[in-house]
Amino acid sequence: MTAAVRAYIALGSNLDDPRAQVESGLKHLARLRQSAWRGASALYRTPPMGPAPQPAYINAAAAIDTRLSAHELLDELLAIERAHGRIRDGSRWGPRILDLDILLYGEAVLSDARLTVPHPGIAERAFVLLPLFELAPDLVVPGRGALRDLVRNCDRTGIERLTA
After folding, report:
1. Which CATH number describes the domain made up of 5-161?
2. Which of 22, 48, 120, 130 has its CA 20 to 30 A from that of 154?
3. Among 19, 38, 75, 86, which one carries the catalytic annotation?
């Protein structure tokens, strides 16, 4: 049997009750097949990245230990998005009901037509770095360096950590 790999997943929504969408996404991740839940960050309200005008986002990060391959995990995340009504139409950085991205899959560095890990924007996006830092402050992002250093250098403008 394949050894479990720690995977970190980013969640985001800015449509159709974003907080409820992200919380539902977290519940789905906690029940993911061949995986064990390891925790989630707080929720963050963040300014949108991409075309304006669009509503603010709610973002979070989650950690799981999974026996799924990286591509199987991607397929499961896409299924969760579809279950929430997400239609991937090829547009980038626009409003979305639920977005789930694999940030890290163990120490793997992968790049193919379907998946790039570590996530290509991980080092520049405070809405990813801050929730991830809550979960794993001592993490080293392959090819990018210590998460602590990435967080120290990120622009936190407009980001608000939400309380329960």
Report:
1. 3.30.70.560
2. 22
3. 86
